[in-house]
Amino acid sequence: QFPFGRRLPCDIYWHGVSFHDNDIFSGQVNKFPGMTEMVRKITLSRAVRTMQDLFPLEYNFYPRSWILPEEFPLFETEVRMMKDSDPSWKPTFIVKPDGGCQGDGIYLIKDPSDIRLTGSIQSRPAVVQEYICKPLLVDKLKFDIRLYVLLKSLEPLEIYIAKDGLSRFCTEPYEEPTLKNLHQVFMHLTNYSLNIHSGNFIHSDNVNTGSKRTFSSILCRLSSRGADVKKLWSDIISLVIKTIIALTPELKVYYQSDIPAGKPGPTCFQILGFDILLMKNLKPMLLEVNANPSMRIEHEQELSPGVFENVPSPVDEEVKVAVIRDTLRLVDPEKKRR
């Protein structure tokens, strides 16, 4: 680590949070300029929605979304029209603050009038989405998938998807949302950083059990039940590629303004975390994209009140070490010289 920068050039610069570090004129940086802005909830929703307008059938993997506060009247009108045309439709919506992470500030509602239109929504914009009420359950629990995607270059567009990811489980058996259980975060929200505070959270030494498992262990279970796992993978790959295509035009604008063509500058690559939910019919739905997915391979365990220690997490280690190893192999500058 070089907290104050370094004078000699490197082959690879590995940054913590963002691209900007002024003295890089060569080598490769593990961040794209503008990526953090592009995958925020509102920007991502806008980019995907632009594509949904053009190619509705190709981009049907992202829940119907509205941007608050600016589209609140539109949200009210559209929900009312849909309810009028289909009285049996009893939707649930999930409100996600634009800059929130780790489940912070997320809540579920049944009707537009339930939105907390206090000062916070004005100062803290959000996305409201149709909540997916029929997720695939494993052991009666809802879970999501964190997949790691390497964007190796924008021109030409080069994308790699890690063969394994993490499955992060809720800690209370799932029931479809009702007014009585809307607030039960351990049932509805799959965020690891929320569920770790649940009394039911299980830190496992085994990739097949516990509250965090490998995605491959889930695929094995699905395959043993006769599910078409090949099709599922193909749908996931398609979702990842189409999402990145939706982000590419604006990413290129950021890239060209920071690294103008013809001037010396680094090239970029970046590991993204894709959060995906599987529906009961095995259709993958995109929840969000994370520009800085955690690469920690241990978890905190509370020994006594307020006293924590770091304990290795075999599941994280199995998936993340491979992701970083293969990323470094793919961007390895030595390869070109050999």
From TrEMBL:
Pfam families recorded: TTL (PF03133)
Keyword Nucleotide-binding in record: yes
Entry GO terms, CC: ciliary basal body
Alphabetical list of InterPro entries matching this protein: TTL/TTLL_fam
One GO BP: microtubule cytoskeleton organization
Domain of life: Eukaryota
Keyword Lyase: no
Gene Ontology MF annotations: ATP binding; tubulin binding; tubulin-glutamic acid ligase activity
Protein name: Tubulin polyglutamylase TTLL11
Source organism per UniProt: Podiceps cristatus (Great crested grebe)
Lineage per the UniProt record: Eukaryota, Metazoa, Chordata, Craniata, Vertebrata
